[in-house]
Amino acid sequence: MVNNLLWHVEFGLIDIRQADFGRPELQGLRRFLLADTRLPLEKRELQCGGVCRQLGYIEWMYVYERNGQLIAAHQRSSSEQRHHTTESAEHQAYKERTVRVAVEAGHRAETEVRTPDGKVRSDVLIYGTAATPTSFEIQRSHLRADVIRRRNKAAQDHGISAAWHTDDTQMFNRNEVAWTRTDNDLPPRAIRDGKHLLIRGGYRRLEMERCDERRARPCLTKRTGKCGGWHPVSHLQQIAYDDFVRAVAAGDIVQAGVREFRTIFHFWTPTAQLEPYEDSIGKTARVVSARRHPPATAVSDRDPTCHERTRGRPQLVMRPGPCLDWSSRSHWSNTTMPCQYCGHPSNMLDDLRRPTHKVCAEERLPASAPIV
Questions:
Q1: Residue 80: count of CB within 10 angstroms of its CB
Q2: SS3 of 112, please?
């Protein structure tokens, strides 16, 4: 498989589909790339500028000419597997909607973000005003409960709050994490642009109920009779998917774990309703991130998509960085156009109404720039 988007360490993005490579100011670029035969390939400073770079990997590439056409290929054939997506159209629609809603609310959102050690990959990572970034994980295909728990713990260990979402009723009825659920069999267009995408389960209203003769259920503490104290009572409540994403990013909705006898029930609830319950029991009922691992001193030899033993490769570091406020509708266009920086399709517009990814614009801000 060949790749059309390259990234040169010195020159930046290069698109070999265009006659001038998208860089008309660089005369003789084609001749320069073909004449560079230095080894190892790292010396040529030519990397994959497509999927590999978006996922946080630095993969070295080389170019050659065949029948008058310039071909760019990966150094390692296993790296080309990343360019073959197995995501369904519905999965991609959920990701696009989540990013759009978060960006319109003024938050920074990125797709397919990996931690430096490669143990956590987020479908959509949102840097909101909450204490920790939130990783929205869209899980439509069946996955074992132990795998979900392991991935959820890995996110917590890295200081990330995972929001798991599905449209599969069987997975939702499990209780390993705080699932949310929407209707299944929705077409991609309804998921991406539908006005009435509702969360049918996983979001609950939490109330405190006095444990006396008027309470029908047995006491949660004594398991029999009444104790006269206060116990939580939750009621299922529907919420618009867009409102849920905005509230989670702002920290207004959090995960909760309420124990009833030997079982802890996981769900999402408003922060204002959870606080009275925490005051009554004298401890937190929220999902608390485990201790964060110290930074890795080296990159693993194993590639997430291939088990062959290879030399370690550097990875891009995930970090919040400066954040632009593009919540105004003036920064959104219904027409998809290539981003002026990376060339990938974008519906976002910068202040001059030019097609630009918000992430691409933020990457070009000075590191010391304030959050605006």
A1: 18
A2: strand
